[in-house]
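Quick one:
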Amino acid sequence: MSHGQVAGASRDAIRIKICGVTTIADALACATLGADMIGLNFYPKSARCIQPETARAIVEAVPSDLQSVGVFVDGDAEIIRQIAQTAGVRAVQLHGHISPDACRDLARDFRVIRAFCTDTCFQPTDVLSFRHCDILLDAHHPHLRGGTGLTCDWAAARAALPYARFLILSGGLNAHNAPDAIAAVAPDAVDVCSAVERAPGIKDHSAIKDFIAAVRGASRPLKATPA
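Output:
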């Protein structure tokens, strides 16, 4: 199985990632309710940041087919590798200033998800510098990195789709707009955080259930190919 594949999910199914998980109970709920991935945040400025030892306890508690993803902002590749290994995650999601070379280095040991913000500077072809990574597209915020509730630019995400080997759509998704987002973008996966919380880092299991049901019931159009 390649780094970009998720065990337990069919080839055509849209994968679902629940980000900002901070407890074993919430991680187990994600697994039970049908999520494919959970995000464990190691960005110190995030309200959802946890210690690597806490993350390891979560990783060891959940079923092996639920992929745990370590979320990082900036940072040196070796430091990211050390934290990820301590936490026991098999995938890393990289925001901020991370070079293609650093991503390529980390891809020797992990599934690498390179995150981009769809701000006014974003160009769909930007993802071509990270062919060895999966791509996550999120909304732009001047200070925060994910979990903002702001909506990603779906048109920009759709335009980037042909250039990404595996595209995860994030940013402002919820049970109400997920079907429209999937119809507009046709992503390989979707990522949700604040819309399934009672407070930052505290998940609402009913909202998770509703979100997963909305995604599973959505219809994904055919992917485009590069011109």
